[in-house]
């Protein structure tokens, strides 16, 4: 049920042969070379089951030296490579499109995950749809059960003195309720309560998957404009779909998710290109945090000028002259073939 029309396989890439496999076994040992269909199946499919490749080989390097040996070899042989971490991507960026070699990056990625953890501190004002999550996931409790509200905001602060943080949040809550900004609010009393609030926010993508098919957009917009798009989309789609909005208020990141029973071209044609055009008119970005991946490789012009895209292609060509690294993603295939990548 892919939402993206597939590009054509680039025939300048070689196909894997027995000599390649022997070489990889020599440098990685038997256990670093995965050929089992079942394991490959998992890695060939993204977790939302929207994108599917047909890689025949996954490599599991354990050191940067092994990584560079693999890449050297793949480059000289013109074997395309897709690095994969947790395979939790949302735009088809981490699964092969055709028969690219998979390279498991999870065991090497610990350092850079660390960095993601630290960045997440800055991104702590979230807004969400509580009702949807409570309906589709078990074991969760509405922290504000007395009434159903349209908008929920989750705020987390990190400070060196817990009592001081609490005091500040309490007075913020009181003030905001007094001046009519908030109707209701609750403060987590301990780590367990805090994590149960987070479970609701983090459960949204999962709840949406359970609800049926979902068209996902990851947009960056001026916060005061975000809800206009949600309303316009609701008007366009009527009862055909449920338009759900959540995201990261702190960085103007709207996750516009359109939930339907099943994927359907007539609904898709009401969403796209409208959603991209609207975002472009507001000078927003069509990719806030999920990346362009395969899904939006041909949509980059809604957010970036032709010159910028050319420059990106030129940098890519400099670092990856044969274009073997994660092909068909991020940049339009037309630009890549023009610049000979
Ligand atoms: C999130 O903020 O929950 C993630 O980006 C996943 C998603 O957008 O569904
Ligand atoms: Zn997000």
TrEMBL record:
Residues 51-224 form the FAD-binding PCMH-type domain. Keywords: FAD, Flavoprotein, Oxidoreductase. The keyword Transferase does not apply. PROSITE patterns: FAD_PCMH (PS51387). The keyword Translocase does not apply. Its cofactor is FAD. Belongs to the FAD-binding oxidoreductase/transferase type 4 family. PANTHER family: D-2-HYDROXYGLUTARATE DEHYDROGENASE, MITOCHONDRIAL. This is FAD-binding PCMH-type domain-containing protein. It comes from Rehmannia glutinosa. The lineage of its organism: Eukaryota, Viridiplantae, Streptophyta, Embryophyta, Tracheophyta.
